[in-house]
Design goal:
By secondary structure, the protein is α/β, with parallel strands linked by helices. Helix content is 38%, strand content 27%. A six-stranded mixed beta sheet has the order 6-7-8-3-9-10, with helices on both faces. It has a four-stranded antiparallel beta sheet with strand order 2-1-4-5, covered by helices on one side.
């Protein structure tokens, strides 16, 4: 059974429909990439898993229907979320921001802090630094770290490379790969940076105008004419 099961998902903002009949299964232990252009509905899809949108259809996590479950409860079930651009508390320090994520895993604070600092040593050196003074890459690391402080079974990561330098993207990729390979964490990444997603994920889904257009392994999708022409200019 898949860890995350999404069936016939329709999502609305008022009368405007953002997602149309999305079906998606995420197997435990995998990295799954959701690629597509800006406005395709990628962030909406992750928000919906957390219960932050108005929807029709089914979202199940670890066999449990998430309908009518509050976002805070969804997190406590084992879903960590690192949203686009972090949504950090700008005038709080790195450590304080990380501890915000520990509210439902208080018995693992020291263990999880050690994990985050091992992944991102720069954060350990700058624990008291207010996040509004940090670089975009460092803030992304804090956002990922805060999500990991919840002790998730599933990590949702929204556009982790947006606006970041190539070197920082490589650091983020290495951390996510380590979490998956060494710790068995299941990860769903949304990305406009198709190369980044293709380099990490074992399975890729192309989301365009709110619909899943193509699905497959990175090798399979790289052979698709639409992918080559639209995202690689070939």
């Amino acid at each position: 059974m898949a860890l995350l099961e999404i069936e016939k998902l329709d999502v609305f903002y008022g009368k405007a429909q953002s997602l149309h009949g999305v079906d998606l299964n995420v197997e435990a232990g995998k990295i799954v990439g959701i690629i597509g252009p800006n406005g395709a509905g990628k962030s909406t899809l992750l928000d919906t898993v957390l219960g932050l949108t108005t929807r029709k259809g089914s979202v199940r996590f670890d066999g449990r229907d998430l309908a009518k479950i509050a976002p805070a409860k969804v997190v406590s079930l084992g879903i960590g979320y690192a949203p686009e651009r972090g949504n950090l508390f700008p005038f709080m320090g790195v450590r304080e921001n990380l501890l915000v994520g520990a509210y439902n895993a208080r018995d693992k604070i020291d263990e999880n802090l050690r994990m985050v600092f091992d992944l991102f040593p720069v954060l350990e050196a700058r624990q008291s630094q207010e996040t509004h003074t940090q670089s975009g890459g460092e803030r992304q690391m804090v956002s990922l770290g805060r999500a990991l402080m919840t002790s998730p079974k599933l990590l949702l990561v929204d556009e982790p490379t947006i606006g970041l330098a190539p070197k920082v993207c490589l650091d983020i990729a290495a951390a996510l790969k380590k979490l998956n390979e060494k710790m068995g964490l299941t990860i769903v990444i949304t990305e406009q940076n198709v190369n980044f997603a293709m380099s990490l994920a074992q399975e890729i889904h192309l989301l365009e105008t709110g619909r899943i257009r193509l699905s497959g392994t990175p090798d399979e999708l790289m052979k698709e004419t639409h992918i080559k022409e639209t995202y690689f200019g070939a």
